[in-house]
Specification:
10 helices, alpha+beta, elongated, 316 residues
Amino acid sequence: MRSTMRFFISVLAMFAILASCRGGGDYSAPAPFGGEAPKAADRYTTLTTESPEPTASPEAQLNLPEGQQAAQERMVIKTATLRGEVEKYDPWMGQVKELIVRYRGYIVHTSTRRDYDEMLSGQTTIRVPQQQFDNLLTDLKKNLRKIEGEEISGQDITEEFFDLSARLENQKRAEERLREILRSAKSVQDVLQVEQELTRVRENIERMEGRKKYLQDQVGYSTITVEWHEPYPLVAGRQGRGFWGMILRGFEEGIEGFAGALSGLITFLIAGFPIYGFIILVIWLAVWATRRGFLKFRKARPVGFKPGETPNKNKS
C-alpha cells in the first residue's frame, strides 16, 4: 500500500515539474499539425497590417500637466501687429525693454533704418507669455505717440494638437510591441526586418514630438510686432520731409535729372558719331551735286530768257 502511494506521489510530482517548466519562459503558439510555429517576422507582419486599436480620448492620452490644462480650454496662437509713431526711438525702446522684463517676454527681432537725416523708423518683434499678451499690448499702445493701425489674430490649433497627441500615443504603442517582437526574434532576417520597422516608427515619434513641442511653444508664447517711426517734422533740414526740405530736395532732383539727361545725350552723340558723319557726307554730296547741276543749267540758258518762256531760236 505504501509503495502504491509513493508511486502516485512520484507521478504527481513529475506532472507538477513538467507543468511548471512548460509555463515558464516566453510563450509561443502551438504549431499546427505537420507545420511550424509562427516566426517573429510573421508576428511583425500581423502587427503592421492589423487595424489600429481604438484610441482613448485626447484628454486621457495627454499625461503631461500642460496637456491636461490644454484639454480644458481652446489652444489658440495669438499674434498682433501695431503701427504707430514714437516721440524718440531711444527713450521709447528703453520703455519697451522695461515692459518686456516686467511681463517675462523677450525680443525676437528688431531693425532700424534712417529714411531721412532726421527721422528713424523700424520694426520690433516681441514674444510674451499668452497670459500677459493683453497686458503688454495695452502698455505698448500707451507708449505710442500716435496709433496708426492695429491687427490682432488667433489661430485655433486644438483639433490638430489632440489629433497629433493621439497619433503619437499609437506610435509609441507600436514601438513597444515591436521591441517585444525583437526580443523574441530567432533569425537574423527577422531581426533586421523588425529593426527596420522600429527605426521608421522611432522617426515618426521624434517628428511628432517635435511638432507637438512647437505647437505648445506657439500657444504658450504670443507674438507682437510693432512697426514704428519717429514724427515727420513740418520744417526739416536739407534732406528733411518738411515743406522747405521737400522744395530743396525737388531742386536737387531736378538738377540731378538734367545732369543725367545731358550725360545720356553726350553718350548718344559720341556713340553715333560714325553714323552722323556718314549722313552729313551724303547730305553734302547731294547739295554739291544739286548746286553744280543748277550752275550748268544757268550757263546753258540763253541771255534774256525768263522762266516760263519758250526760247526763240530765230531771234538774233
